[in-house]
Design brief:
- The chain contains 14 helices and two strands; from the N terminus they run ααααββαααααααααα.
- By secondary structure, it is an all-alpha fold.
- The protein has a two-stranded antiparallel ribbon with strand order 1-2.
- α3 packs antiparallel against α4, α4 runs antiparallel to α9 and α7 runs antiparallel to α9.
- The longest helix is centred in the C-terminal third of the chain and has 28 residues.
- It is globular, with a radius of gyration of 18 Å.
- The structure holds geranylgeranyl diphosphate (GRG).
- The site of geranylgeranyl diphosphate has 16 residues, from α4, α8, α9 and α10.
Amino acid sequence: MNLNDFLRDTRQQLENRLLASFDAPKSERLRTAMRYSLLNGGKRLRPALVRAAALAAGNDTQDWLIPAMALEMIHVYSLVHDDLPAMDNDDLRRGKATNHKEFDEATAILAGDALQTEAFAILAGADSLNDRQARQMIAQLSQAAGANGMVGGQMIDLQSEQKTLTLSQLEKLHALKTGALIQAALQLGVLCQSPLSGTLLSAFERYGRALGLAFQITDDILDVTASTEVLGKPQGSDLAADKATYVSLLGLPGAQQQAVQQHQLALGALAEVGMDAQTLLGQLATYVIQRDH
Ligand code: GRG
């Protein structure tokens, strides 16, 4: 399957399953707000990584779907909360009104909270996972999403506003804020298959670290190069908010060079386990630095 077909098929399967979830809401408003952001046109990169990692580990069943849904729910909750006035204060996400603009702040907070708990509930209750797999996936995902992962990175990011960061500080921040969930995607994919290959896990760890940075650097580049129409939010908004970004630190050519470097590191990690740039994971790495939104 080529990458475009793979991404389309992953999106379709994931969204079909997401559409069927939350069918017995206690609160119709909460359900609508959760579904609004969950089915609002994301690229579904993390689910594609879960599936590609599972395939690379030798699992070609549908086992990737539950961990991919859980991970996407965590990702979407983080975007809903990140857009709130207390954080980034954004009106637009994926070209549409942010959750708190469409509903209200309290509803957006609750929708994010409920998406987060639902993520762990579907892992804990999945028939397709054995107890050990479910426990390991819950452990990986909670570690990646929590205080020592994404939430910790977000806190450091907020504390870094209007400060000058070194490249190494910026890398550490993004390894947590954006990188941890990308790494988790690969770990969840590998966990679909047992017994686990230690060599594969360590290669994927290096691939995931480089991919996470390549993703964030490209995000910073797009913030200044892509049009507002393509971005779905005002161009240059991170720079205007006086945030340290790869572009503010290194300039545009320097940031582009860093993205290429991380892309090479990601492909190098795959090569160590005999996977080339044409494998799905290789193509996904290239997609990450070549995407336009
Ligand atoms: C609020 C707990 C909490 C955490 C927020 C990840 C994050 C931490 C905030 C997101 C801010 C942001 C836009 C970071 C840049 C990288 C990123 C995560 C972009 C959005 O991910 P995509 O491009 O989104 O995969 P789609 O829309 O395709 O799902």
